[in-house]
Amino acid sequence: MEIREYRPEDCREMAALFYDTVHEVNAADYIKEQLDAWADGKVDTAAWNRSFLEHDTFVAEENGEIVGFADMDAAGYRVMKEQQVVRKGVKLTNYVMKKIFD
């Protein structure tokens, strides 16, 4: 898996991933009306793109496919350090984050 910075051409795929995640992963916990209110599939990709560009936005990619993303603003968390951890014999990269309060 590769973690990289957001690129504007990612926006449509990220919108589809968001919709699919809400409607598949969360379907057991919410009724259809709640899922549709959360993610109706009618994303203003121009607005999303502006927001992603204004924030620290990262994309997780595996085999050329976007499998996750994070969007943080300056009032959110700060990366303290990158680290490697081993889980079940597999080395993973994660980040130590700290919430910053104004």
Features:
single chain; 102 residues; alpha+beta; three-stranded antiparallel sheet; 39% strand; globular
Structural overview:
The chain has helices at residues 11-25, 32-38, 45-54; strands spanning 2-5, 56-62, 65-72, 77-87, 90-99. It is an alpha+beta fold. The strands form 2 sheets. The chain has a 3-stranded antiparallel sheet with strand order 1-2-3. It has a two-stranded antiparallel sheet with strand order 4-5. A hairpin with a 2-residue loop joins strand 4 (77-87) and strand 5. It is globular, with a radius of gyration of 16 Å. 8% of the residues are buried.
Structural class: alpha+beta
The rough form would be described as globular
Name the helix and strand elements from N-terminus to C-terminus, one letter apiece. Answer: EHHHEEEE
Number of helices: 3
Strand tally is 5
Spatial strand order of the main sheet: 1-2-3
Low-confidence runs (pLDDT<50, min 5 residues)? none
How much of the sequence lies in strands comes to 35-45%
Residue-averaged pLDDT:
91
Helix residue percentage? 25-40%
How many strands, which pairing sense, and closed or not: the largest β-sheet?
3 strands, antiparallel
Radius of gyration: 16 Å
Distance between the termini: 33 Å
